[in-house]
């Protein structure tokens, strides 16, 4: 009981160290409770597209679990550092390492009980709120409802107990390797002036530039996904090296600049930071990386969520889209008859015959046919989708009256941003591009694709068939010779219940009539619902991870201010004794804090700016092509985060001021 009472008194009297630690552990417990309850909710399995949504939340819960272990380890390290004097004093007063093991064990048990009681309780309470938010964001109904899953609560408690066991092992190891005298005088041990590591600073600069170069030179969305983590890893390494080695190099260069250095506003901050930059740099780099993660995570998921309507419109220019390799004249008549029967008006009906979407490998204006089944991902940057359509079909579809007088003339529409060539070579056949046309943009002939797509308007169907026979001569590629038929139309019904009933009935009528004909039936309403569920779930996950990273950033800043305040207190007392007044001390403190905390935010904004082209390419895979909307969302998120960062800076700066003024 003696050790339990002493442990309780330590926690109660040392609130400045233990309260932030306990708050972070309670938050992590609540976060894990919430995520595990959502990810394992039985209602998710009943949703349309349940597999993707379940995987999404499962992936998010795993990220939160890993983040919890990493961040708990970080906070334990900071806590141990702040308590070195205390443990050293106990050791000098007669407590051996075995007694210290017992003392810290009871401290961990008390912390664990507080964490589980408050963390699980708040996790359950916030889970109710989270369920309401998810239902709103994802547009789902009563199948997804809050249920208190005791097995999930047990799993969360076991996980948090495991984390505390890991933290106790870290604590015990630190006690085992410690020397009582060193612990007692830990705060009196000065820092040696670090050397300017030019080589590491240069490596950091090159690594960061390499990561930026990858982000800027990515050509296709598929390669953006494969190179994303490489770029992220390079930027993280570069950031840490620049903050640890590069910052010292910069500070020493500032010290050599006499006009800048020998100024009361700069002399003390620069000289102090040079000596303590070894312990400062890692924390500042961590703040920068976590800030970048908040900005990228929230802006990307918010961009997906707010761009959902554009995503749906890109994929479905019409309410109903039917595709087949056989004529759809019979199904067209079925649609008209069923609409008349149900007294529903169909509008903007399109019936189109084209080639299938053909895969080519392109270099400048030279296109060579490729087989999708044997295509390598390494060649995806050179890939292009090509659809061939006859001039008569084009004029009927667009109600235009264009003409082609020469066999080698074509019209072309492309999603490529910078196709400025006047000719197009398809497997050795050179065609003159008479004009690039834009009326095919909203026809649905080209769905959103990770590669550039082209619609080529040729003189007649005979020319198209001749080219196809020349391109695909083998049995394996014979399927590409079949034409593609598409029937698209809108449904003039605003009532959602009636729309669903009509679409369901129309689908059944098609199934009765089509017999053995192969066709795909897709409707915009179902796609919009699935997009809202996925994007809403993704946005919720982004908010949760953003909050987690923001908390980590806040606590790192807080711990940094506390440790800096303790270190600087004696130094500023001496400065006041030698003549510096209180107003000058405050100006120096303000200058030092601003110098330290402006760098992580500025670097984070720089990272995000260079990441935007990479994220832009990745969002194309989700059907988001509205770059302006995503840019606005990112700017809004950056502004909100900057305001929160400033608030955190002001609150934690007060802690620093109080410590120094004592």
UniProtKB/TrEMBL annotation:
InterPro entries: ABC-4_Integral_Memb_Prot, ABC3_permease_C, ABC_permease_BceB-typ. It is found in: Cell membrane. Keywords: Cell membrane, Membrane, Transmembrane, Transmembrane helix, Transport. The keyword Transmembrane applies. GO terms for biological process: transmembrane transport. It holds the Pfam family FtsX. The keyword Cell membrane applies. This is ABC transporter permease. Its main location: membrane. One of its GO terms (cellular component) is plasma membrane. Residues 59-180 form the ABC3 transporter permease C-terminal domain. The chain crosses the membrane at residues 21-40, 52-74, 109-134, 146-169, 198-216, 228-251, 281-308, 538-559, 593-615, 627-648.
């Amino acid at each position: 009981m003696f050790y339990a009472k002493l442990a309780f008194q330590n926690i109660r009297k040392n609130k400045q160290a233990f309260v932030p630690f306990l708050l972070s552990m309670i938050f992590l417990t609540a976060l894990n409770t919430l995520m595990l309850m959502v990810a394992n909710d039985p209602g998710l399995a009943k949703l349309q597209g349940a597999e993707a949504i379940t995987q999404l939340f499962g992936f998010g819960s795993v990220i939160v679990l890993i983040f919890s272990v990493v961040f708990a380890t970080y906070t334990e390290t900071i806590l141990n550092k702040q308590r070195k004097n205390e443990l050293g004093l106990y050791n000098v007063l007669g407590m051996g390492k075995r007694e210290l093991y017992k003392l810290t064990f009871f401290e961990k048990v008390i912390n664990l009980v507080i964490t589980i009681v408050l963390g699980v309780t708040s996790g359950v309470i916030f889970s109710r709120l989270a369920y309401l938010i998810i239902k709103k964001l994802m547009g789902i109904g009563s199948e997804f409802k809050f249920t208190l899953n005791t097995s999930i609560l047990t799993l969360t408690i076991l996980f948090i107990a495991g984390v505390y066991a890991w933290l106790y092992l870290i604590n015990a190891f630190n006690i085992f390797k410690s020397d009582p005298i060193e612990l007692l005088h830990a705060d009196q041990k000065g820092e040696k002036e670090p050397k300017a590591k030019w080589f590491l600073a240069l490596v950091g600069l090159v690594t960061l530039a390499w990561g930026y170069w990858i982000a800027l030179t990515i050509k296709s969305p598929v390669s953006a996904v494969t190179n994303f983590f490489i770029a992220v890893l390079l930027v993280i390494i570069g950031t840490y090296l620049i903050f640890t080695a590069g910052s010292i190099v910069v500070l020493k260069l500032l010290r050599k600049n006499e006009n800048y250095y020998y100024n009361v506003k700069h002399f003390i901050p620069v000289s102090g930071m040079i000596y303590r930059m070894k312990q400062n740099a890692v924390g500042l780099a961590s703040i920068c990386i976590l800030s970048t993660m908040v900005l990228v995570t929230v802006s990307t998921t918010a961009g997906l969520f707010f761009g959902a309507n554009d995503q749906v419109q890109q994929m479905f220019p019409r309410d109903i889209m039917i595709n087949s390799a056989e004529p759809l004249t019979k199904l067209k008549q079925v649609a008209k008859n069923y609409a008349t029967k149900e007294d529903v008006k169909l509008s903007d009906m399109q019936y189109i015959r084209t080639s299938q979407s053909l895969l080519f490998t392109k270099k400048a204006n030279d296109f060579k046919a490729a087989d999708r089944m044997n295509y390598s991902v390494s060649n995806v940057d050179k890939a292009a989708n090509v659809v061939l359509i006859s001039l008569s079909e084009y004029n009927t579809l667009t109600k235009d009256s264009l003409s082609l007088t020469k066999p080698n003339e074509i019209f072309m529409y492309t999603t490529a941003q910078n196709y400025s060539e006047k000719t197009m070579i398809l497997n050795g056949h050179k065609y003159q591009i008479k004009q690039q046309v834009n009326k095919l943009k909203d026809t649905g002939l080209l769905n959103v694709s990770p590669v550039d797509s082209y619609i080529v308007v040729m003189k007649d169907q005979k020319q198209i068939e001749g080219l196809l026979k020349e391109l695909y001569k083998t049995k394996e590629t014979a399927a590409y010779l079949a034409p593609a038929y598409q029937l698209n139309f809108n449904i003039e019904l605003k009532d959602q219940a009636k729309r669903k009933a009509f679409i369901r009935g129309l689908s059944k009528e098609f199934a009765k009539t089509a017999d053995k004909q192969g066709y795909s039936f897709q409707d915009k309403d179902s796609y919009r619902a699935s997009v809202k569920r996925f994007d809403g779930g993704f946005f919720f996950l982004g908010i949760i991870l953003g909050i987690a990273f923001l908390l980590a950033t806040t606590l790192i800043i807080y711990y940094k201010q506390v440790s800096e305040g303790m270190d600087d207190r004696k130094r500023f007392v001496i400065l006041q004794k030698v003549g510096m007044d209180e107003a000058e001390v405050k100006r120096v403190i303000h200058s030092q804090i601003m110098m330290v905390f402006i760098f992580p935010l500025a670097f984070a904004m720089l990272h995000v700016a260079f990441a935007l082209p990479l994220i832009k390419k990745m969002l194309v895979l989700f059907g988001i092509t509205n770059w302006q909307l995503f840019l606005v969302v990112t700017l809004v998120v950056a502004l909100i985060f900057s305001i929160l960062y400033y608030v955190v800076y002001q609150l934690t700066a007060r802690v620093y001021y109080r410590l120094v003024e004592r």
